[in-house]
Design a protein that fits this description.
The structure is a single chain. By secondary structure, this protein is of the alpha/beta class. The protein is about 35% helix and about 15% strand. The protein is built from 5 helices and 4 strands. The protein has a 4-stranded mixed β-sheet with strand order 2-3-1-4, sandwiched between helices. β2 and β3 form a beta hairpin. The longest helix has 18 residues. The protein is globular, with a radius of gyration of 19 Å. The protein starts with a helix and ends in a 6-residue tail after the last helix.
C-alpha cells in the first residue's frame, strides 16, 4: 500500500487514491447477504438480546450495548456445520416498538423489509425479565410479536 502512495505525489492523484481507499473501507462495512443461503432473522423489541445471540451463535459481530436501538442497520453472521456441509445466515435487525406503522422510523422499516424479503425462518427474541426498558415490557413485546405474525403469516416462526 505504501508503494502505491509514493507513486502519487500530485495532490489530485493522492486525493483520488485517498478517496478510493475510503470507498473500499465503506464497502467492507456493507453486510453481504447470500440470497441462496438459508437465513434466520432475529426480531424483537429494542434491547432484548438479539445482537448478543448473533454474536454467540455465529461469526457476526454486531455492536452490543446496554441501551435501546444500538442496532441501527442489519448485521449478518454465519453458522457453518462442516460435518453436514451446511451453512446458514443469522441476521440481527433493529428493534421494533409497539406503535402504529405510520409512526415507525427508518430502522424499524428496515426490519420490516428484511422480514418481507429474506427469511427462511424468523426467531422472535423476548426478554421476559423486564430489564429491557419501559418501551419493551413483556406485554409490548408480545403485542409486537402478534402484529408480526399477523403481517407475515407464511413465515416459519
Amino acid at each position: 500500500m505504501k508503494e502505491m502512495e509514493t507513486l502519487y505525489t500530485d495532490n489530485s492523484e493522492a486525493r483520488c487514491l485517498s478517496d478510493l481507499l475510503s470507498l473500499q473501507a465503506d464497502l467492507r462495512r456493507i453486510p453481504v447477504i447470500e440470497l441462496d443461503t438459508p437465513t434466520i432473522v432475529l426480531v424483537g423489541a429494542p434491547n432484548v438480546g438479539k445482537s448478543s445471540i448473533v454474536r454467540v451463535v455465529s461469526s457476526g459481530t454486531p455492536e452490543v450495548n446496554d441501551y435501546p436501538f444500538t442496532t441501527r442497520g442489519v448485521s449478518i453472521g454465519h453458522i457453518t456445520d462442516p460435518i453436514r456441509s451446511l451453512r446458514f445466515q443469522v441476521m440481527d435487525t433493529p428493534g421494533l416498538l409497539d406503535r402504529p406503522v405510520e409512526e415507525r422510523n427508518e430502522m424499524e422499516k428496515l426490519t420490516f423489509a428484511s422480514l418481507a424479503h429474506l427469511p427462511t425462518a424468523v426467531m422472535f427474541v423476548i426478554d421476559p425479565t423486564g430489564m429491557s426498558g419501559e418501551k419493551s415490557t413483556l406485554e409490548k413485546q408480545l403485542s409486537i410479536r402478534a402484529l408480526l405474525k399477523e403481517r407475515f403469516p407464511r413465515r416459519p416462526w
